[in-house]
Design goal:
heterodimer, A: about 325 residues, mainly alpha, MetI-like fold, two-stranded antiparallel ribbon, 14 helices, 2 strands, B: about 280 residues
Chain lengths: ~325, ~280
């Protein structure tokens, strides 16, 4: 009798280890999963789903009416074909790459110069670093309004200053009347806003450099330029790489500055991909085409994002 | 002599860079204080001869800027509040538990920060429209969570990793529950991290323009960037009003930045945020 009871009691234990293991795993994961759940729902619902939906829309012909009930007609790659066939759409992508790259180069070069200057620890360095920090704090939209005013054709400070410096052709010069000059103004705005981040990040890097190596190079007779090129730059390469990739992502997707400052340029010739995707959708009602442009921009940025994540991952492990 | 030449050149550069940084901000300030006749002139004064504050009460009242300021505060504030709770929970889970695919998860979180918002805006618009949330605070706040929650998770994880597990273990051997330990031991230590995260999330909500432009059509619901943009677009542009509104919009951010610059640098280098 007692023997039988023992077998009965033993039975759950037979399949026990595996089952208990699963149960323990579930118990162990319940709390973390519950804690993660709200963030996961937000990321999946507000990023994952919209992203998939935009990709789907990019293969459809969708107008405002279709958009709400999701009844757009499937047109395959037609929207993508249109991007390359339509001059305005194609130009907006080229603008993004060319103007964005120019901004990256401008920001990096200027940012690096300012970082080296900050690293000299001149008198008044603290005030200088606060001054450098300031433009970073100005929201993109305010910066766009501010520089739009500085570059105003009739009452703007820039034209007044240029005329007074002897460039009289800048009297009433209309910066936003064509693409090139509009881009000069927007370039200045973008660099103004982005160089502080680059400069302060590089300064942090410069301060970790081994002073002995730089000193030794100086003792060996290396000029300042040689020290920079042969010692400083190679040592700072990891952080420079991160900043270049990061700035590229940032400058390729700028929206606010272009939306505000390029709106007066004839034929909207200075619009970049983000603005064109937006306007094509919400101003013209071509949600399919707009989505296709957004997806192309996304694809370009995805390459850089993967690069960025790998660079950060490498730094994190080091 | 060479010393003077070398250093002099550096000081000159320092002054030039400072002028480039500061002058636009200064120019905005004085434009907002000038009477109309001094704004619309071919020979602008570098110093307002007769500074006047009347532009500020004017834009705050009739220019909808006062209302927009309130809207911006509500939206950015509520976004921050939700972000802190959701972000802290997720970051705690990611640092204190063995979770499968943790690394992949973190990389995904980081990558969401790189997405161009324009790739999300159309479906978000449809979601909010179908939920009848277009033009409401709630709609904009929920949409803002899309990019602020990943940011909060990433930044807060960076801070929580630095708090040793042992402290929590000690509290729990002393009889505290997991929640109690989290509340009484981890939270106070994580306070600087929470504050940094809060500031970063608030700024994201404060600065966001595209979604606000799309969702908030009613004048009484527009946020500050949308109102300023609508001023710039007008035929005869009222620069005095725009500059006053820009000052109101920018000033809080500048104050926060200058006060918290060290913490923000820390948070941003970890969190990959800019501007």
């Amino acid at each position: 009798m007692s023997h039988g009871a023992a077998t009965v009691r033993a039975r759950p234990d037979m399949g026990g280890p595996a089952l208990a293991g699963v149960r323990r795993a579930v118990a162990r994961l319940t709390l973390p999963v519950l804690l993660l759940l709200p963030a996961l729902i937000i990321i999946v619902g507000l990023i994952g789903y919209p992203l998939a939906r935009t990709i789907w829309l990019s293969f459809t012909e969708t107008r405002l009416g279709d958009l709400i009930d999701g009844s757009g007609e499937w047109v395959g790659l037609e929207n993508y074909g249109e991007i390359f066939a339509d001059e305005h759409l194609r130009t907006s992508l080229i603008n993004t790459v060319v103007f964005g790259s120019a901004c990256v180069v401008g920001t990096m070069v200027f940012g690096f110069a300012v970082a080296l200057l900050l690293n000299q620890r001149l008198r008044g360095n603290l005030l200088f670093s606060v001054a450098v920090l300031l433009p970073w704090a100005v929201p993109a939209l305010a910066a766009s309004a501010i520089w739009r005013w500085l570059f105003d054709d009739r009452y703007g400070f820039v034209n007044w200053a240029l005329v007074n410096l002897g460039f009289s052709s800048f009297q009433d010069y209309a910066w936003f009347a064509d693409r090139q000059s509009a881009y000069v103004a927007i370039f200045v705005t973008v660099v103004w806003q982005s160089f502080p981040f680059v400069a302060l990040s590089l300064l942090a890097g410069l301060q970790t450099l081994p002073q002995e190596t730089l000193h030794a190079a100086a003792v060996d007779g290396a000029t300042a330029w040689q020290r920079f090129r042969l010692v400083t730059l190679p040592l700072l390469r990891p952080i420079v790489a991160v900043l270049v990739v990061f700035s590229t992502i940032w400058d390729f997707k700028i929206f606010d500055q272009i939306y505000v400052m390029a709106q007066g340029v004839p034929d909207r010739a200075a619009d970049t991909a983000a603005v064109t995707a937006y306007r094509e959708s919400f101003a013209l009602g071509h949600y399919g085409t707009g989505s296709a442009i957004a997806v192309v921009l996304f694809a370009i940025l995805l390459v850089f994002s993967i690069l960025y994540v790998r660079l950060i991952g490498r730094e994190g492990r080091a | 002599m060479t010393w003077l030449l070398r250093r002099g050149w550096m000081y000159a550069s320092m002054l030039a860079v400072s002028a480039f940084s500061l002058f636009p901000v200064y120019w905005v300030l004085i434009t907002s204080l000038k009477p109309r006749s001094e704004i619309y002139t071919r020979t602008p004064d570098l110093w307002p001869s007769d500074p006047q504050w009347h532009e500020y009460p004017r834009v705050l009242g009739e220019g909808h800027v006062g209302r927009a300021l309130l809207n911006s505060l509500v939206v950015a504030g509520a976004t921050t509040f939700v972000c802190l709770i959701v972000g802290a929970m997720a970051a705690y889970a990611l640092t204190r538990f063995e979770i499968p695919f943790k690394r992949v998860l973190m990389m995904l979180v980081l990558m969401t920060q790189m997405f161009p918002l324009v790739v999300l805006v159309i479906p978000l618009f449809v979601i909010m429209r179908n939920a009848d949330l277009l033009g409401t605070y709630a709609g904009l706040i929920v949409a803002y969570l899309a990019f602020t929650v990943p940011l909060a998770v990433w930044v807060m994880r960076g801070f929580l990793v630095g708090i040793p597990d042992e402290l929590e273990h000690a509290a729990r051997t002393d009889g505290a529950t997991r929640l109690g330990a989290m509340w009484r031991v981890i939270l106070p230590l994580a306070a600087p991290g929470l504050a940094t995260t809060a500031v970063l999330c608030f700024l994201e909500g404060w600065k966001e323009f595209m979604l606000a432009l799309t969702f908030m059509n009613e004048e009484s619901r527009k946020t500050l960037p949308v109102v300023i943009q609508s001023f710039v677009g007008r035929g005869d542009t009222d620069w005095g009003a725009i500059m006053a509104a820009s000052v109101i919009y920018t000033l809080p951010v500048v104050v926060v930045f200058v006060l918290l610059r060290r913490h923000l640098m820390q948070g941003t280098t970890a969190g990959a945020v800019k501007g």
